[in-house]
Amino acid sequence: MNKPSTHHSALIAAALCCLSMSATHAASTSQADHRAAKARISATYKVDKAACSTQAGNAKDICIEEAQAKEKVALAEQQYAYSSKASDRNKLWVAQAEAAYDVAREKCDDQAGNAKDVCVKEAQAVRDKALADAKMGKDIRASRKDAAQDKRDADHAVAVEKCDALSGDAKSSCVNAAKVRFGQE
Length: 185
Description:
mainly alpha
């Protein structure tokens, strides 16, 4: 049998050491560092929001929504980095999903009519899928079936909304095809 070289063993030991240090780093963040990070996040949010004042209309609304989303996600990331708890990881995933949805929904305001409705439904579908993934990560065995159904429901809602642009038999065929495709019969 070939024995691993000393160099090879040292590399493996160094890699394992780095992995264990990175895994414990999150839990070893001091409370003072945690508070300082939260203060930095808050200050960054204020700067980002102030930068939005140069814009007008929906562009300003989108800018503000992006600043708020960035702050929510950063705070959730910091909390998870501080605690390393699975529940905080799940809260991070939810914050990411909700933040992305809030920004996407605000961007839909630039559209009108059915295009806006489709845009909103697509944003909701993306959010619902991300929330389903977060739910699945929380308790895989209990949530897998629910998450898959939530995803199908979200995709179905988008498909039906797209059918609203049609009329008569074409709309009926479109809705029926969406029902069959996503198991909504």
